[in-house]
Design brief:
- This protein has about 325 residues and is an alpha/beta fold.
- It has two domains: about 200 residues, P-loop containing nucleotide triphosphate hydrolases (Rossmann fold, 3-Layer(aba) Sandwich); about 120 residues, Hypothetical Protein Yjia, Chain: A,domain 2 (2-Layer Sandwich), CATH 3.30.1220.
- Helices cover about 30% and strands about 25% of the residues.
- The strands form two sheets. A seven-stranded parallel beta sheet has the order 3-2-4-1-5-6-7, with helices on both faces. A five-stranded antiparallel beta sheet has the order 8-12-9-10-11, sandwiched between helices.
- A hairpin with a 6-residue loop joins strand 9 and strand 10.
- Helix 5 packs across helix 6.
- The longest helix has 14 residues.
- The chain is globular.
- The protein starts with a strand and ends in a 5-residue tail after the last helix.
């Protein structure tokens, strides 16, 4: 039995998350969704879109599951796994004021969950009308952008012509790895949004390879501390020294990355090593073999707070294999 894909939907209050879920139900009639809602202050889902939807929609109102994964969340996951529920895709809608990192980590670290579920992507909805103000005033909005695989720049029909392109550049200050799509009314009929497998090693390798190795410092008139940093060096690293250094960064360093993706070359290892880290949870995956005529290299992309690209690069050079 294959693992059930999980799509986590985040975005600030009023961005259009519930509208997106309703659109997903309409656009993917072949899917049998189970839906976990953890929202307040917005309209509910329209269960008439899907036969038996009421039986597969679960609402968590006892606190925000993003802040602290409470017993209700794990009880619900266990209920889905052990109950007589017919579904092949799990949607989780988080509260608009939350940073969903704890939900992501649950699907990467809990063995019972890992056996049955696999994260497909984290989708962040953005209100094009208000996002610039929210970026400056709401730290959680910046974090939501940083953790996303797909950013839907919603309500572009309500802003002036050309402004959506400016906003797209603005979003990439926080996360150059994310795929960004302009939408109106969360219409995803022309967007590849499900079954994109953003957490698979090959997808991570593709996104790291496409990174332009630039440091985005953001708008000088706006003070925020989240950015994307790309580091690339030639040659091999020593695995044990790299692992010790990397774990030190994840747990103790003054710069705390929210997300790290990398293509690494370790001495005496014939395959490319694909690294993926979410906060303090990381995994290595094997990629393609290094070809005999291919120059080996290491490339890492950090998305996070207070990143010092020069210090990171200097430290990585010290980890090169002798």
């Amino acid at each position: 039995m294959g693992k059930i894909p999980v799509t986590i939907i985040t975005g600030f209050l009023g961005a259009g998350k519930t509208t997106l879920i309703n659109n997903l139900i309409k656009e993917y009639p072949e899917k049998k969704f189970a839906i976990i809602e953890n929202e307040f202050g917005e309209i509910g889902l329209d269960g008439s879109f899907i036969i038996g939807a009421d039986e597969n929609i679960f609402e968590l109102s006892n606190g925000c599951i993003c802040c602290s994964l409470n017993n209700d969340f794990y009880e619900l996951i266990n209920k889905l796994l052990t109950g007589n529920y017919d579904f092949n895709h799990l949607l989780i809608e988080t509260t608009g004021i939350a940073y969903p990192i704890s939900i992501v980590n649950a699907f990467l670290s809990d063995y019972q969950i890992i056996e049955r579920f696999a994260i497909d992507s984290v989708i962040c909805l953005v209100d094009a009308v208000n996002i610039e103000d929210l970026i400056n005033s709401e730290p959680e909005v910046r974090k939501q952008l940083a953790i996303a695989d797909i950013i839907l720049l919603n309500k572009v029909d309500l802003v002036r012509t050309g402004y959506s392109d400016e906003l797209k550049d603005r979003m990439q200050e926080f996360n150059q790895l994310a795929r960004i799509y302009p939408t109106s009314k969360a219409d995803i009929s022309q967007v590849e949004i499900l079954d994109t497998c953003q957490y698979l090693g090959r997808k991570i390798e593709q996104s790291v390879s496409s990174f332009k190795n630039l440091t985005f410092l953001g708008n000088n008139n706006v003070k925020h501390d989240i950015k994307s940093v790309g580091i690339s060096i030639p040659g091999d690293l020593d695995f044990e020294r790299f692992r010790f250094w990397f774990e030190t960064i994840l747990f103790f360093a003054k710069y705390r990355p929210y997300r790290v993706k990398g293509i690494l070359s370790f001495k005496d290892v014939p395959e490319k090593c694909i690294l993926h880290a979410i906060k303090d949870n990381y995994v290595f995956d094997k990629g393609d073999l290094w070809q005999s005529n291919e120059e080996r290299y290491c490339k890492l992309v950090f998305i996070g707070r207070n990143l010092d690209n020069l210090e990171i690069e200097e430290n990585i050079y010290k980890l090169r294999a002798e």
